[in-house]
Each structure stands twice: as C-alpha cells, then as structure tokens.
Amino acid sequence: MEKMIQLQKKIAPEIFETLDKRYNILRNIHLFQPIGRRVLANKIEIGERIVRAETDFLKDQNMIEVSTAGMTVTSEGEEVIEGLRELLYTTRGIVDLEEKVRVKLGIDRVLITPGNLEEDEYVLEDLGKIAGKLIEKLAKDNTIIGVTGGTTMAAVGKKIPRQSKHKGIMVVPARGGLGREVENQANTISAEMARQLNADYRLLHASDTLGEKALESILQDPEIKEVIGIIKSADLLVFGIGRADKMAQRRELPDETVKKLERLKAVSEAFGYYFNRNGEIVHETNSIGIKFQEFQQIPNAIGVAGGVGKVEAILAISHLKKNMTLVTDEAAALEILKNSQY
C-alpha cells in the first residue's frame, strides 16, 4: 500500500492535498458541531467560498447534515474520519517517524498522531483515542491502573473503548487533587475510565499540595491508606507529562521556589519531583500518591503529551523511564528529532 501511495504522490499529488483539506474540514465539523460555515471558515482559516463548495460535496456524499443549527457529521462521516486518519499515517510517514523518535529517546514504544496540538484542538481527541485503545489492549483480568490528572488525561479517559471481556480491573488516581477544574482531576478521570472499562475504582480524597504535617496526618486515615496501598500495586500507569513552569503554577508554589526552578533549569514535573532536561532531580515537593521510585518500577507506563511546548518535558521523562510508551503528536515528534542536545 505504501508503494502505491508513493506512486500516486508522484503522478497525482493534488489528490492528497484534497484529502487533507476535506479531512480537516470534516473533523473540525465533528469537533465543533453544530457549526455554521462562516464560523468554520474562520476556525480553519480557509475562504468561506471554498468551505461552502467542500461542505456541499460532503453533504452530497452523506458525510454531513445541514440544519438551521449548523452542520453535523453523520455516522458515515465518522467512519470516513477514522479511515482518513489511518491513511494519513501512511501518507505522512508516521510509522517511520514513530521508529525514529523511539530510537532517539531510547524508550520501548512511540505512538504518534498527525498534527499539532497547539494549533488544532482535534489532535487532543486523537491523542485520547490512541492512548485509550492502548489501555484497553493492555488491561487484563485484575489489572490495577493508576491515572494522573490534567486536560490530556481527561481526553484519554473519555476515549477508552468500552469493554466487558476482562474482570477485576481496578482504576485508581495516581496522585492527589491539583487545580480547580473538577473534570481534570485524577479522581474524576479514574471514575470515567472505570466506567468505560466496566471496572471498579477508588478515589483519593486528598489534595496533592498538602504541607508535611497535614500529609503525615491524612496518611493515617484508613481509607486513604487503602487507596495508597492499591496505587503502589499498580500494573499500568497512565500519566500526562507536565511542564515544570505550568505545574509550579498549578501547585501555587511560592515565587521564591519558582525562581529556584528557573535558575536550576527545571523543565518537567512528575509525582512531586522537578527535573532538568537530563532527567536530574532539581527540586522535590510533598505529594500524595505514587512516588518517583515506584513510578520507575511499574511494568507498563504510558506517557501522553502533545505540542512543541512539551518537548523538553518529554525529553526529561524519557531519561527517567525507558520501559514506557510515549503517545504524542507529529509536531512534538519532529521537534524531538531536531533536538541535538539529547
């Protein structure tokens, strides 16, 4: 198939330009539906006349429906989106890119979705789908899955395929609560993921920003002790890869500590530890849940992050755990390959 695509690129490159354009229009309708033509044209920065012509074609092919509320994607259109996404893997050389990034980082596996999360909101959904399918594949009877919080992880929780073939799966938050958005908390994501997997779950009713004395006190609570014990037994960890500056902001660290992190060139945060680009610990904070040493021992780990802004954080985490799978986007992958200092 790949050889045929390369021949088509040489003799009729306009075919793939049209495919890219229609795929972009179709998936953006799916993401923002119902949506009008003018709003869609502004979002994808294509002329309204072109959008009108292309959406008329998609309507004629029964891929979208048009009503007074706006355009929506049909079930047939959803199938086309999935099919085109897989075709783009080949036309953009994604499989080859995955292997190059895997070798560069020296980790077990890399899975890449086309696009750039920082420019295209749909890429977040694609990251969620890829990670979700991998989780569903790795989860067996009695698997304990640890999950962190964040926007990317929330997308993963929603995109896990529903299944009922495996029994005894348990989903637990891998760390305490951070920030104010309930939908992005590890507890919320754990519950959603458990629902999709037809699994059981436990909640960790504790903030991840507790002081030392408060942390010691709360760890005496029997329910908290039980959940921490389960977390320590996790077979599979699914985690977002956080930038040091953004995580310092979420944890509301003092200005003095933020300046220290800048001085020490911290680029990534995981489980209360801050790392420089070489994966060296430069700062530690109190954190409830999985510890750094336990993270290194977990047999299966999936790190999910997209966008060029996450590249240094990805590089740091890749130093820390080689037996992991990275799920990222095309833009971050290309930037990783450009980086000569890894």
TrEMBL record:
The keyword Ribonucleoprotein does not apply. Keywords: DNA-binding, Transcription, Transcription regulation. Pfam families: CggR_N (PF21715), Sugar-bind (PF04198). InterPro entries: CggR_N, NagB/RpiA_transferase-like, SorC_transcr_regulators, Sugar-bd_dom_put, WH-like_DNA-bd_sf, WH_DNA-bd_sf. Residues 93-338 form the Sugar-binding domain. It comes from the Bacteria. The keyword Transcription applies. GO terms for molecular function: carbohydrate binding; DNA binding. Residues 19-87 form the CggR N-terminal DNA binding domain. Belongs to the SorC transcriptional regulatory family. This is Transcriptional regulator, DeoR family.
